[in-house]
Amino acid sequence: MGEIRPFELDIPEDELVRLADRLDRTRWPEQEPVADWSQGTRLAALKELVAYWRIEYDWRRCEAKLNAIGQHVTEIDGLDIHFLHKRSSRPDALPLVITHGWPGSVVEFLGIIDELAEPSDSEALAFHVVAPSLPGYGFSQKPSSTGWGVERIARAWAELMQRLGYAQWVAQGGDWGAAVTTAIGQLAPAGCRGIHLNMPIGRPGPEDMASKDPKVLKALQALGFYQEWDSGYSKEQSTRPQTIGYALVDSPVGLAAWILEKIHCWTDNDGSPWDALSMDQVLDDIMLYWLPATGASAARLYWESFAKFGAGTVAIPSGVSAFPKEILPAPRAWVERTLTNLVYWNDLDKGGHFAAWEQPELFVGELRACFARMA
């Protein structure tokens, strides 16, 4: 109990052979009768990705990168939590817990961890980086009972930072990571000096319905689009996660289609998902769902917490980086209803929902600028 155990990935080769066999035996549907992504993942895009997955993709590259950063597991509240941990060599480094969302994973952070821990500029703020996998995601244990919502995860992350010996620390997140990080802010555990979100959480009030402010109008339009056209995945996962889970755990192509749609829709791209992320990056992420078979367990977080996403207020110091292609942009006035001690806000000119993944240099700069105000 409380032990930090080393964790090293070494997926058996026969698992990769079985995956290749499944990809070879895919039964494809007919092509969509539209010339865009309005009915979901396009057949041509998915076939292109699957062909690359089958022939050129190298899982061992990703496996080696994760092992090189440093992986660990520790039991918290009865559940084994997997996390990446890279300590900086700098004695003044600030401990940081950074949380991914869905359909992401800790691979979103592979492009930022080294720079955060060992800045190329010796004068820049450095961090001890802790990147846990959410319960039921990646190589964290799958909860066998209900109750693992964002509040419980927030308490677990506070325990993790204490267990690692970090008396003073900060927290960051986007997507579900934003919900968990907001919950950390509400909990205000001893030692947490502040939080940063790259998906600002805010809701409109009655007064916003008649607003002429362009930012408010943009946010209301995005909210309407999300509810009508983009939220089917969340409705299914928040009401019947087990049902969709069978397909996501059994079919690698079904899983890839489920995830690729969101990569396309939620990144800052010019029409193709590969404008924002490479096939290797996307497949690294998909593999962190496929190999541990987490399609169902990851979806259950929606069942646990989607209705409470972003509820409550945060009084500790908070910061926001607003990326232009965020799926639910929230004007600062909305966010300040939740983050009542907002000490940092910046509107970026490029980047989408997966900010650290898409724009690693910008993202690292945002964390330094924000947390410098809390260090």
And the CATH topology? Rossmann fold
How does the helix and strand content classify structurally? Answer: alpha/beta
Indicate the proportion of strand residues.
5-15%
The best one-word shape is globular
List how many beta strands DSSP finds.
9
Write down the domain tally.
1
**CATH homologous superfamily label:** Alpha/Beta hydrolase fold, catalytic domain
- Report the average pLDDT across residues: 96
Second-tier CATH architecture: 3-Layer(aba) Sandwich
Spatially, the strands of the biggest sheet line up as 1-2-3-5-4-6-7-8-9
Q: Helix count, per DSSP?
A: 15
- Residue stretches low in confidence (pLDDT < 50, at least 5 long) are none
CATH class wording: Alpha Beta
- Radius of gyration, in Å, reads 20 Å
Query: How far apart lie the N and C ends?
Result: 31 Å
Q: Name the helix and strand elements from N-terminus to C-terminus, one letter apiece.
A: EHHHEEEHEHEHEHHHHHHEHEHH
Helical content band = 40-55%
Q: Could you describe the largest sheet, including whether it forms a barrel?
A: 9 strands, mixed
What this model shows, in words?
- The protein is of the alpha/beta class and 375 residues long.
- The protein has a single domain, classed as Alpha/Beta hydrolase fold, catalytic domain (Rossmann fold, 3-Layer(aba) Sandwich).
- The protein has 15 helices and 9 strands.
- It has helices at 13-24, 43-55, 59-69, 113-117, 150-163, 176-187, 214-230, 232-239, 241-250, 252-266, 279-290, 295-305, 332-335, 355-358, 360-371; strands spanning 4-6, 71-76, 79-86, 94-99, 127-132, 169-173, 192-197, 318-322, 342-347.
- α8 crosses α12 and α9 (241-250) runs antiparallel to α12.
- The protein starts with a strand and ends with a helix.
- Belongs to the peptidase S33 family.
- It comes from Qipengyuania mesophila.
